[in-house]
Amino acid sequence: MNFIIKPAEIEKASFAIITKELGNKKFPEGQAEVVKRVIHTTADFDYADNLCFSENAIQNAKDAILNGATIITDTNMALSGINKNALSQFGCDVRCFMADENVAAEAKKRGVTRAIVSMEYASKLKKPLIFAIGNAPTALIHLHKLIKQGAVNPALVIGVPVGFVNVVESKELFIGGSDIPYIIAKGRKGGSNVAAAIINAILYQLVTREGFEK
Fold this sequence. Notes:
Number of strands: 6
Largest sheet: 6 strands, mixed
Shape: globular
Radius of gyration: 17 Å
Strand order of the largest sheet: 1-6-5-4-2-3
Low-confidence stretches: none
Distance between the termini: 31 Å
Mean pLDDT: 93
Number of helices: 11
Order of helices and strands: HHHEHEHHEHHEHEHEH
Helix content: 40-55%
Number of domains: 1
CATH topology: Rossmann fold
């Protein structure tokens, strides 16, 4: 048996398989690339049905990236998975406050999660903001609260925390109940890798359009 070993060829073959297995399933403009990259990352075709997009979510994210957005993640794993080369070509950066000593100290003092304090720190940034939440439902819950209070107005909220406690409920705060553009993975599934994959899928659409390199 001849194995495919070149990275670009492996990715191309993987996406061909995904496209074939999705069959005749159709997606609005820009969403197919996101869904396929999440499936590529997870090998889970459930995402073809449980990824929920608000109207114009993809375009809003693209506009923010073209205006030098900062991506906020709730884990260093998601931060690591986002393509920095692609980000830098648009003057964007990505930040995670979870390991910040001041965040940790304040969270301990207040008796709350670091994810909650991290969202507060991020909300003070002045650049266009895209939140990519893949792990902590408390981050998503508190972000929703900050939005309601007018403390932050994200260009996009990616809400894909994984798990059992507060996970479904945190996602439902945004689906149909918020004017903020969102991409949400309904149900319990998600993860930092999914959050990073969604960001990369949007970035790669712009990279291709602008003639940049990944």
